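S1.2 Input.
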Amino acid sequence: MALHIGKMIRSRIETSGMNKSEFARRINSTPQNVYSIFKRKSLDTEMLFEISRVLGFDFFQYYTDGPTPHVGSDIHSILPASQINQELNEAKRELEMLRQENKYLHELVRLQRKHAEMAELMSNENDLSETPAEPTKQAAETTPAKVAAPIKQIKKKLPLKKSTSKRKSSPKNKPR
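S1.3 Output.
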């Protein structure tokens, strides 16, 4: 049995409840042309594509073994190439904007971490400068006399060279 696409389109319009004038308007045609479409056994692919889109039905499935492979049964996913390119360009722009935003966010996080580290260092430095260093017990008990005594003992143990050279008198001390 031969395929009569015009009859299938007419049946689908009737099932959808859309009147022929509305259908003609949506496919950018006239009601007279719609009646001409109903009589055709075949249609131009652009026209069939537009009819499929308007009725939300994949008429191309009748020319294959099932639903059009890349479309499935949802004809609303079929888009003209110009619209696909437009959406692709929009998606590329959005992707670039998201990449840029991601880069800015990474930089923000890096700067916040650096700020937190600096704040912590400054806080630690302030804690050290605000708290006076308390002398240890050992440092408080150490006096110059206590330090001097061990130094004298060390000096006694060290062998000292005695100078054997005669002292030269300075010109001031020479007799005349």
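S1.4 Remarks. The first helix runs from residue 5 to 16.
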